[in-house]
Write a structure and sequence with these properties.
By secondary structure, the protein is an alpha+beta fold. It has a domain of about 55 residues. The protein is built from two helices and four strands. A hairpin with a 2-residue loop joins strand 2 and strand 3. It is globular and about 40 Å long. The chain starts with 12 loop residues before the first helix and ends with a strand.
């Protein structure tokens, strides 16, 4: 269930994300940017990793698309997405 909190003005996105993490009342947080998509297969894999309780942070290899084509030089661009 989503909870709405008053928005503060931050100097950068990292400060916003860190403030949100401090407000989180759940064990895991999945951080996605507005242009990112969570595929069903990845969702299932994340759920399995969380059930196994075998890690503290999950890095996701993401693909960057430009004009509908994968930018090969950017893959895998590993990002911490669940923590």
């Amino acid at each position: 269930m989503a909870h709405v909190h008053r928005v503060w003005k931050f100097s950068c996105l990292d400060d916003e994300r860190n403030a949100g993490l401090q407000l989180a009342q759940v064990e895991w947080v999945l951080a996605l940017d507005s242009e990112e998509v969570l595929l069903r297969a990845l969702k299932s894999e994340l759920e399995m990793l969380i059930r196994e309780d075998s890690c503290d942070i999950i890095y996701v290899a993401r693909k960057t698309y430009v004009a509908g084509c994968v930018l090969k030089s950017s893959y895998p661009d590993r990002q911490a997405k669940s923590y």
